[in-house]
Amino acid sequence: MSFFINFTPDLVVESPGRINLIGEHTDYNLGFVLPTAIDKKITLKLRKNNSSNCNVYSLDNEKSVTFSLDKIEPSKQSWENYILGVLHEIQLLTDKLSGFDCVLNSSLPIGSGLSSSAALECGLAFGLNELFNLGLSKTQIVNLSRAAEHNYVGTKCGIMDQYASVMSKSGYVIKLDCRSLASEYIPLNLGDYKLLLLNTNISHSLADSEYNTRLQECLTGVEAMKTLYPYMASLRDADQEMLTAVKDTISTTVFNRCNYIIEENDRVLKASEALTQGDLTSFGVLMYGSHDGLQHKYEVSCPELDFMVEYSRTKEFILGSRMMGGGFGGCTINLIHKDAIEKYITEVASAYKTKFNIELDAYIAMPDHGTMLKTL
Ligand code: GAF
């Protein structure tokens, strides 16, 4: 397949990864999150090819694949399912899709907790919507991309990643209510501080990880509480008193998972308030609280992430640090004074290398706009 040589696209889409300042694993419990898109993106070049075939070439891993639109079904190759899933979900909504060629490349590190998967799903859905005039709204693009992840990739994820990838505005974080999808755009004014991402280079795989188990554990907690509080629909409706009332009927593990979610929702609300007030010190304390809960109660961290967060704790120029995303690898997010960044990266990278014999990568996260067409 050589269609990608001298490729002239009909349109180009840039689809960003995301960071999440606080509110981890709260989205599928219909709680609150505080994400934004960043300036690391997947670029998709697309053109119609007047056939019923879809040819996709990834410049990064030099893999190409062809699908017939007449036979879209899950593949054994996991990366193909992000594409196939989107095609399948679009076909459920409209019959206007036809053959296309697509060339992909990315500045987003894969498996680093920056949600390259949502960037790919949303970018493809957004691009095909434009290319074939499908008439889908942004909300439909978010929802169908999430459905692709559920039905083809197998991760029963929440709405956060797809929402942030599509709906973000440059310079703002989104305080998103994952139940109503009401969003408040809060200006990200960090003064002399920056958001530093430290990538453990431990690659996570949500489908293989315990992500879906966590969802089940939360649902078990909800079922137990429903016996006393029948109106409850999700952990979003729970408080510590309600959880304590069913403590004897659930396992310690389920108790800890629910306890973390209730606390984390509360932290997101406090953190949003702190950010609005410009109180970065309180914001940082809440970030550390989030990490502690993810490490000890939700148990989705790993030694490399814990090391990175521990290392930051004694540094007065770092206000807060936590693991970010699904967990089991990927990045920490650090609220750090701008003047200390360079020296700190060198120091922590050396300590990390000594401890784990792994190189770390560091990026400054710049909040950016959501998925967009690029002018040709
Ligand atoms: C992954 C999921 F895709 C999100 O929906 C979210 O649950 C996150 O993990 C944890 O907060 O990125």
TrEMBL record:
Keywords: ATP-binding, Carbohydrate metabolism, Cytoplasm, Galactose metabolism, Kinase, Magnesium, Metal-binding, Nucleotide-binding, Transferase. InterPro entries: Galactokinase (IPR000705), Galactokinase_CS (IPR019741), GalKase_N (IPR019539), GHMP_kinase_C_dom (IPR013750), GHMP_kinase_C_sf (IPR036554), GHMP_kinase_N_dom (IPR006204), GHMP_knse_ATP-bd_CS (IPR006203), Mevalonate/galactokinase (IPR006206). This is Galactokinase. GO terms for cellular component: cytosol. Residues 81-168 form the GHMP kinase N-terminal domain. SUPFAM superfamilies: GHMP Kinase, C-terminal domain, Ribosomal protein S5 domain 2-like. Residues 9-44 form the Galactokinase N-terminal domain. GO terms for biological process: galactose metabolic process. Residues 273-353 form the GHMP kinase C-terminal domain. Pfam families: GalKase_gal_bdg, GHMP_kinases_C, GHMP_kinases_N. GO terms for molecular function: ATP binding; galactokinase activity; metal ion binding. It is an enzyme of class 2 (transferase). Signal peptide: none annotated. The lineage of its organism: Bacteria, Pseudomonadati, Bacteroidota, Flavobacteriia, Flavobacteriales. Its EC number is 2.7.1.6. The keyword Iron does not apply. Belongs to the GHMP kinase family. GalK subfamily. Gene3D superfamilies: 3.30.230.10, GHMP kinase, C-terminal domain.
